């Protein structure tokens, strides 16, 4: 039920209590161990706490505890048992497979009669701050990525610790990185569409109103153009203004999944936007962009994705690429004047027969490899 990181922290807490010749393993020992773990440090800092100050408070607490003989094996207090039980309950309710460092910190905070909980509250850390960070990746304060020189990593623990730091990244939780997929050669090449691609680049390089929207019938290849742009950026065949840019495709389903309470969805989209703002050259791609109008709004409310996006788009802080069909553009998207005027429309027409043959010829090797067969030229012409 516990992750490897958490098991290591619990073992470290047991060793700490034994080394200090304490009769009991207390919640404070667990918190002390968490404050020497990379993930625990990051969570505390992201929630506005001062790690060194909490460590100092714990040292003063330990200095006042009675000591016993060296051969003593510290026993768990009832408070520790309650904290472990609360962490497991939190994991079960959230649908996770195992409890992590963040879950145990939430449980410690709930153990209000302990000094550990008092020290966290003394730093202004609330239970909501902890839940927002471990569930949605929303930090109370910005924390720079840094390695703690005092941490010792063994047996691959450094790689695992780095992986844990990315688990709360809203961009990893709620978007797909098209640029990374392009780097890993997981995207199909874009054949043709040079005019549409150049128009997209031209709009993205503007200072204001730098948000293109692809409008075309279903299946004409709107998403493929966005993927083609990611491939072009990866290949370095773009203007200097877009050099090194990353394209993130918004996953509306992931944003909506598990939002049980009012405000959960709003917090998630805000976390995504905040993460995008921290990246100097990021582009947000929203497929079926008409779905964001009304998405996440509570009954009778108007706080949906589109209204959260508008301020960032108006200032030009975030560049966005949308795609939708002609019907949805007229019926839904165009009616939201405040949103539609921030986008520049690009018509994506159905490719001609010669263009279709060119596209099929370009994609032929990949499909031949996948299906273990060969396509003749006449077959491609007939299909076109």
From TrEMBL:
Listed GO biological process terms: cellular response to heat
Recorded GO MF terms: ATP binding; ATP hydrolysis activity
Pfam families per record: AAA, AAA_lid_9, Clp_N
GO terms under cellular component: cytoplasm
Organism the protein comes from: marine metagenome
InterPro entries xrefs: AAA+_ATPase, ATPase_AAA_core, Clp_N_dom_sf, Clp_R_N, ClpA/ClpB_AAA_lid, ClpA_ClpB, P-loop_NTPase
Keyword list, A-Z: ATP-binding, Nucleotide-binding, Repeat
Transmembrane segments: none
Acidic residues composition-biased segments: 146-160
Domain Clp R: 1-141
Name assigned to this protein: Clp R domain-containing protein
Region entry Disordered, spans: 146-169
